[in-house]
Amino acid sequence: MTSFDRIDEAIVARALAQEPGSRLRTQIIPPQGRVAVELEKGQTLRVVDLDGQQVADLICFNRDDLAEKFSPNVSVMLKGNIHLTTGDYLYSVDARPLLRIGHDTVGCHDVLAGSCCRGLNRFRYGPEAEHQPNCRDNLAAVMAPYGVTIREIPYPFNVFMNVPVEADGHIEVIEPVSKPGDFVDLIAERNVVVAISNCPQERNECNGFAATRLGLVIYAAEASA
């Protein structure tokens, strides 16, 4: 566990603004890193962009039934919109809420582009890119101790990723708009396992061509939660 002690004070002040409860844990995910965390119902996970323009590929599972996992398709269908932000839910394949989006200082995230993986890297950048670090391998690695295989890894909620959709349906990954200290709060609607890949992609604009750090903060549930 790594605290925020050595991060610029102004960034920390932004990252820890309007805290939703008592702080239980802080952690820095290094560039290209990955982590899985368990949340109790009512606890909040804050994902912080510490250096700006860094994407977090995030997936979620019902901790009491790991076959029930996050579905971007269901989440979009139930909202009727591809833009998920404050007040919206990350739903499971069974249309049950896993996480609710709380305070969101960016409001620009993605549910369309999926994760970078060996196959996409090979297709886009050639055979030499197939074995570079990627989000799908990262997510599979942290979920393996739970018995979840790479084939069972769902498509993610891409926190801070910027994928605008044009009128003709064209999409393109462009640089994120998140700044150092920006964050989004995710509130557990049930006991969950959340896995995050600190996106390693440096061959396109996804992370502004440079993988940097992410911060995590876990907050206790409110007494009424």
TrEMBL record:
<feature type="domain" description="DUF1989">
    <location>
        <begin position="28"/>
        <end position="193"/>
    </location>
</feature>
<dbReference type="InterPro" id="IPR018959">
    <property type="entry name" value="DUF1989"/>
</dbReference>
<protein>
    <submittedName>
        <fullName>Urea carboxylase-associated family protein</fullName>
    </submittedName>
</protein>
<dbReference type="Pfam" id="PF09347">
    <property type="entry name" value="DUF1989"/>
</dbReference>
